[in-house]
Amino acid sequence: MFDFTQFWHAIGHQLSRPSGIRGRLLGHVMAYVNEQPNREAIQSLDIGPSDIILELGFGPGRAIETLVSKTPHGKVFGIDPSEEMVAQASRTNRRWIDSGRVRLMQGYFNVLPWQSGTIDKILAVNVVYFFHESGAELREARRLLKPGGEMAIYATDKSSMSQWKFAGPETHLLFDRDGLTSLIIRGGFGVDEFFIREIAFAYGVIGLIATLRKRSSAFEFADGKGSASHPSRENDDLSSGCH
Ligand SMILES: C[S@@+](CC[C@H](N)C(=O)[O-])C[C@H]1O[C@@H](n2cnc3c(N)ncnc32)[C@H](O)[C@@H]1O
């Protein structure tokens, strides 16, 4: 008999790290079904033409194309551990990679290889499910943001996600507004540095968009509440592992 539990678990696992032929197919599906959340999240950022943007978990790389079109004098970086997604996103954005406006890296968002305070905007769509409950990835993201820099996080609300069998606890952390608020605070953002709004999609699906803005204060505490700056990374050479 067909094992549905195994099947849904495999889909959940593929979403967290697409690989092989299944990952490639899933990439095409994501490019289609995640179009609206990506559009909404990008719209929530006040992107300027010279901005340096980073996308966490870019998957098939469709949002990268949009970000490039909004930053004619800027640069777009991306990081994702999936070899398959790096290849797919690189094919989609080949022209921009070749011209030096896009750099895609294979790696993980808990250790981001960029110097502190160098990124204007960060996009994180459908990836917060794979963050650690400690908020470690958000601390890293906050470290990279320039003062006044912004981040947009999209997550489908727990009320919708919990009905989708692929989003089991073995692969996904689920968030409602309160859960996402707590994670962002654990990630070092002050309560005055973000807001969350709900979006209603077709079929009653509820999405959450968190827009975060790192305060411009000259004093930045290591705990995210306000003093000493983070040590900057020694190695900011983006050439290794980039496509
Ligand atoms: C559900 S897909 C979303 C892709 C894309 N953001 C979108 O909206 O279509 C999640 C992506 O996050 C990536 N991912 C999972 N864990 C990651 C990690 N620790 N660091 C960086 N990316 C990760 C996966 O490889 C996958 O491409």
User: Total strand count, please?
Assistant: 7
Secondary-structure class: alpha/beta
Q: Identify the overall geometry.
A: globular
The pLDDT mean sits at 87
Whole-number tally of structural domains:
1
Continuous helix count? 9
Bound ligands = S-adenosylmethionine
Report on the architecture of this protein:
This protein is an alpha/beta fold and 243 residues long. The protein has a single domain, classed as Vaccinia Virus protein VP39 (Rossmann fold), CATH 3.40.50.150. 34% of the residues lie in helices and 21% in strands. The protein contains 9 helices and 7 strands; from the N terminus they run H-H-H-E-H-E-H-H-E-E-H-E-H-H-E-E. The protein has helices spanning 4-16, 20-33, 35-43, 62-70, 83-92, 94-98, 136-144, 158-161, 177-186; strands at 52-56, 75-80, 102-106, 119-125, 145-156, 194-200, 206-213. It has a 7-stranded mixed sheet with strand order 3-2-1-4-5-7-6, with helices on both faces. Strand 6 and strand 7 (206-213) form a beta hairpin. The chain binds S-adenosylmethionine (SAM).
Brief summary:
The chain has helices at 4-16, 20-33, 35-43, 62-70, 83-92, 94-98, 136-144, 158-161, 177-186; strands spanning 52-56, 75-80, 102-106, 119-125, 145-156, 194-200, 206-213. With 243 residues, the chain is of the alpha/beta class. The protein is globular.
